């Protein structure tokens, strides 16, 4: 009858230490991989410069809103420049189109958005819109519904800012021509690759 090998405490401890180190290496590699996948971001000055060219003479209000946004959510990884129109009689609809700009080298892409709203607003308006995108890498990240956050809204120098979120991403529209309608944040925006009349 064969004798069983003796228990080698040193070999077992060495094996456990090696396994632990492999685990730490994998965890560090995963952390490095996650950080490398984080999209590049635009600086506040880059966003303000693009917005100033787009909006014209509203640079002071834009700079204040961009500063507020970066303090609250950091630097955006994308932004959209476009136009939109909306109308409401308590319940409202909003339609828009613009171009998505990213730092990831995916190119500039035409995008469209639609969405319903509810609130105490009446009439219609049109506005130039700049949307800051957070953790947005490209157009495929946008093609979903972004819901309003806490109905938050800020008015500075003829510009208004709201915030919407979906799947750990955020879109922060900055609009001109704002008024009482900016208080209507009980809704969402749905982004699509082509124009559609269906806001749902």
Key traits:
30% helix; alpha+beta; 200 residues; Lipocalin; five-stranded antiparallel beta barrel; 6 strands
List the helices and strands and how they pair.
Blueprint: H1 9-37, H2 44-55, H3 59-73, E1 78-102, E2 109-134, H4 139-142, E3 145-156, E4 159-166, E5 169-176, E6 186-192
Antiparallel strand pairs: 1-2, 2-5, 2-6, 3-4, 3-6, 4-5
Structural class determined from secondary elements: alpha+beta
Number of helices: 4
Number of domains: 2
**DSSP strand content:** 35-45%
Mean pLDDT: 74
Which CATH architecture of the largest domain? Beta Barrel
Fourth-tier CATH superfamily name of the largest domain = Rhodococcus equi virulence-associated protein
Count the E strands: 6
N/C terminus separation: 77 Å
Shape verdict: globular
InterPro entries: EipA-like
Protein name: DUF1134 domain-containing protein
């Amino acid at each position: 009858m064969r004798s069983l090998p003796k228990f080698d405490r040193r070999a077992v401890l060495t094996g456990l230490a090696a396994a632990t180190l492999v685990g730490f290496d994998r965890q560090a590699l995963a952390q490095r991989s996650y950080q490398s996948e984080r999209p590049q971001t635009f600086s506040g000055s880059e966003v303000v410069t693009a917005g100033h060219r787009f909006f014209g003479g509203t640079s002071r209000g834009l700079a204040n809103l961009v500063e507020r946004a970066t303090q609250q959510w950091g630097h955006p990884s994308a932004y959209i420049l476009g136009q939109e129109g909306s109308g409401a009689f308590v319940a409202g609809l909003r339609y828009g189109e613009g171009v998505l700009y990213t730092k990831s080298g995916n190119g500039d892409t035409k995008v469209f958005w639609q969405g319903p709203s509810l609130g105490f607003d009446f009439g219609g308006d049109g506005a130039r819109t700049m949307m800051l995108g957070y953790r947005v890498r490209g157009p495929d990240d946008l093609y979903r519904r972004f819901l309003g956050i806490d109905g938050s809204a800020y008015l500075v120098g003829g510009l208004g800012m709201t915030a919407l979120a979906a799947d750990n991403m955020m879109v922060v529209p900055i609009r001109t021509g704002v008024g009482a309608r900016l208080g209507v944040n009980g809704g969402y925006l749905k982004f699509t690759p082509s124009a559609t009349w269906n806001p749902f």
